[in-house]
Amino acid sequence: MRNEVRFLLGDEPVTLTGVDPTTTLLDWLRDQRRRTGTKEGCAEGDCGACTVAVGKPVDGGIEYEAVNACIRFLPTLDGTRVLTVEDLAKDGTLHPAQQAMVDCHGSQCGFCTPGFVMSLWVLHQDGPASPQRVDDALAGNLCRCTGYRPIADAAQKMAELPAPPRDETAALARLQAWADGQTLDVSANGQRFVAPTTLDEFCDLAAAHPDACILSGGTDVGLWVTKQLKRLGTVIYTGKVAGLDAITDAGDHLRIGAAVTYTQAQDALAALYPDMGELVRRIGGQQVRNMGTIGGNVANGSPIGDTPPALIAAGAGLELRLGRGVRVIPLERFFLDYRKQDRWPGEVVTAILLPKPAPGSLFRAYKVSKRFDQDISAVCGAFSIQLDGGVVRAARLAYGGMAGVPKRAANAEAVLVGRPWDEAAVRDAMAALAQDFTPMSDMRASAAYRAKVAANLLYRCWLETAAALPMRLTGREVAHA
């Protein structure tokens, strides 16, 4: 066990003891280190004003991601390198991300500028970017002044500027030396943070502390602290558990570890189910996708979580573990009622088991929200249709936002099975959705709107698969067409 949190702040080694486990990186940077370039805008991971870069050793180098400092708890940074806007300029010379913002007049009031610069800095590490990649990288940063065009221009401009030399030899050596495999265990102010390093230890801790808060990306838990001022008691962190962030090809299915982030999962999901990859691309901004996990989205049990409907439609299973005992259940059976899951005290989600699509099967997933980016679904629909000679042999229709849990439309499925995949069958299934759901009205949509959209999404699925539309453009692609 180790009770010191260790990370690099730029090139400075930082060692902290007695730190409150729910202190956010944002508060620590501003209050303790006076790094006021990192701003607080929303304190919930939406606006990007607090964006910093966090790096980990990967394949002999340091790989960086943009994250929201406002919902990132300080102990989760153990073994990483944190860069803020103050770290970028060297010897009076601006980094290309900064210089391009100056050259393109990308800043007006300046409040959001440091966050944009840090997102641009991470983007710069990968070289020139397409307009869509730029949009994706900046979608998690909000600006009230410029209208984004000059900032997008700066993203293209910075690739033309000479890159400053980067010597990370010393930083990498320090991070590698700190990788001791020890469990981090820190306590302060009546709260405890434990970061186990093996799956057995993680599961044993969870079983011994059934009331503990299981923390992965913190994109929801962080708001419990920043918005609800909630005290979490004992926190067990999944981010250091070896293998829990692995995606394994198991032949007929993918085994997706519970700590796999959206960013890590996106390409693997898209390779099997293109619509699932596109759905993940619209979860939050890049900062949220870099932190949030597939397992956390499932275990959280929100009826408007984006991944469960798609995973349910694909027939995914869920691996759960209590101590050393393992069980696997269909994912759809995990959700019992609003915020209530089939999970015993002390039991944890360890993996999602995603079947590979059957040959010739049809799969579509759609997210309907008020904004294309950075928004929560009003309705999310996902459909898997298996045909045999044009006749529906099996159908899995799953929705989020329509009930207290992500749920299959059993009556609509029954209407389709055994019938030709044609408009008559689909319209009958659309009508049957009224037997499956009684949606609610809230700030995102009325019940009538949800019911109409749910039916229309099924019709859209039929149009795209049976009517052979000549093309299908995402909202982002339409913007650039």
Which keywords apply here?
single chain, 481 residues, alpha+beta, Ubiquitin-like (UB roll), DNA polymerase, domain 1, Enolase-like, domain 1, 3 domains, 17 helices, globular
Fold topology:
Layout: E1 5-9, E2 12-16, H1 25-32, E3 51-58, E4 61-68, E5 81-83, H2 96-103, H3 113-124, H4 131-138, H5 149-157, H6 169-178, E6 184-188, E7 191-195, H7 199-208, E8 213-215, H8 221-226, E9 234-237, E10 247-249, E11 253-257, H9 262-272, H10 274-281, H11 286-291, H12 294-300, H13 307-313, E12 317-322, E13 325-330, E14 335-337, E15 340-341, E16 348-355, E17 362-368, E18 379-388, E19 391-400, E20 407-408, H14 410-416, H15 423-436, H16 447-466, H17 475-480
Task: Write structural notes for this entry.
This protein is an alpha+beta fold. Helix content is 33%, strand content 22%. The chain is built from 17 helices and 20 strands. Helix 2 packs across helix 3 (113-124) and helix 9 runs antiparallel to helix 10 (274-281). It is globular and about 70 Å long. The N and C termini lie far apart (55 Å). Residues 473-481 have low confidence and may be disordered.
CA-based shape: globular
Oligomer: single chain
CA gyration radius, whole angstroms: 23 Å
Assign a percent range to the helix content. 25-40%
Which stretches of 5+ consecutive residues score pLDDT under 50? 473-481
Q: How many structural domains in the coordinates?
A: 3
CATH architecture of the largest domain: 2-Layer Sandwich
Q: How many helices?
A: 17
Overall CATH class of the largest domain: Alpha Beta
| Rounded average pLDDT | 94
Proportion of beta-strand residues: 15-25%
The biggest beta sheet reads: 5 strands, mixed
CATH third-level topology of the largest domain: Enolase-like, domain 1
Question: What is the count of β-strands?
Answer: 20
The CATH homologous superfamily of the largest domain is called CO dehydrogenase flavoprotein, C-terminal domain
* Strand order within the widest beta sheet: 2-1-5-3-4
Q: Please identify the structural class as seen in this structure.
A: alpha+beta
Q: Span between N and C termini?
A: 55 Å
